[in-house]
Specification:
- It comes from Streptomyces armeniacus.
- This is Protein kinase.
- By secondary structure, the chain is of the alpha+beta class.
- It is built from 9 helices and 10 strands.
- It has helices spanning 7-17, 56-67, 109-120, 143-147, 186-197, 202-209, 213-216, 220-240, 245-260, and strands at residues 20-25, 34-40, 45-51, 78-83, 87-92, 98-99, 153-155, 164-166, 171-173, 180-182.
- The protein has a 5-stranded antiparallel beta sheet with strand order 1-2-3-5-4.
- A hairpin with a 4-residue loop joins strand 2 (34-40) and strand 3.
- Helix 5 (186-197) packs antiparallel against helix 6 (202-209) and helix 5 crosses helix 9 (245-260).
Length: 266
């Protein structure tokens, strides 16, 4: 076991795991204090945990716990959760998969858009009704544009190669840290920016998004407004964190997409 993880943590989860025989820490879940595959008497489990302090990281793990029963068609099932004053932990079924490849010509792309389409068909659970998608609102031109991002779809939004795992028979969307309710086109739109960042031209990226019904049915002005807000958002983030090169890459990808759509005044 990792000496950096105190024995009190293992004592907390022991009623769910039984005796632990091996711990393989992973690089996934960079916002968590513990992410590991735990081989144990009652497992194995993928364990994700944070130190139990008020704030966004705690809230995101609670959201992931609450939404899991409604997303098990596309995500590993949550088997247990444990909490005390020091730790909050979730234990999931272990799934075999590798990070997806978003680059042009990748054989993974049909599976990637397939899982997004499956997410788009999920019914939002009652708990999501209050989790309105507002992250792009501050970067819209005005309240009228921000209103175009509202809707009744269950949104995943944390779309990147490491979160969409390709298995032999299944593709999984993992790390539901911030599910929200909003316009259904937002998930495929997030994929477009990721694909451009991975080397696609914007037309190619949009052709993959078109596999998703929510994209095909979206109003052009809503997608245009979202593209502009995405550029402004990543520019703002990149300016605040000039050491995070990936933010500059995402800002450039968003600009390329906005240019392709003829969006001006960004």
């Amino acid at each position: 076991m990792n000496e950096a993880v105190p024995s009190a943590f293992w004592a907390l989860i022991r009623p769910h795991t039984g005796d632990v025989t091996d711990v393989r820490h992973t690089s996934a879940g960079h916002s968590s204090d513990v992410t590991a595959v735990v081989e144990c008497e009652r497992g194995p489990f993928f364990v994700k945990a944070i130190r139990n302090r008020p704030g966004g990281r705690r809230d995101s793990l609670i959201r992931e716990r609450l939404v899991n029963p409604s997303v098990r068609a596309v995500s590993p099932a949550l088997r247990w959760n444990a909490e005390d004053e020091q730790w909050l932990a979730l234990g999931f079924n272990v799934v075999e998969g590798r990070p997806s490849d978003f680059t042009w010509g990748s054989a993974d792309l049909p599976a990637v858009v397939g899982v997004l389409e499956r997410i788009g068909r999920l019914s939002p659970p009652d708990v999501v009704r209050e989790w309105l998608e507002t992250r792009w609102d501050p970067f819209a031109r005005d309240a009228e544009e921000a209103a175009l991002f509202q809707g009744d779809a269950l949104l995943y939004t944390d779309i990147n190669p490491g979160n969409l795992l390709i298995g032999e028979r299944e593709t999984w969307a993992v790390d539901w840290s911030w599910p929200t309710r909003g316009a259904g086109f937002i998930d495929p739109a997030c994929l477009v920016v990721q694909l451009v960042a991975a080397g696609h031209d914007a037309a190619s990226a949009e052709s993959w998004a078109a596999w998703c019904a929510a994209w095909r049915h979206a109003e052009r002005r809503a997608v245009d407004a979202f593209a502009a807000a995405t550029v402004r958002m990543y520019r703002d983030f990149a300016a605040r964190r000039p050491d995070a090169e990936w933010l500059a890459v995402m800002a450039a990808a968003g600009q390329e997409w906005a240019d392709h759509r003829g969006v001006t005044g960004v």
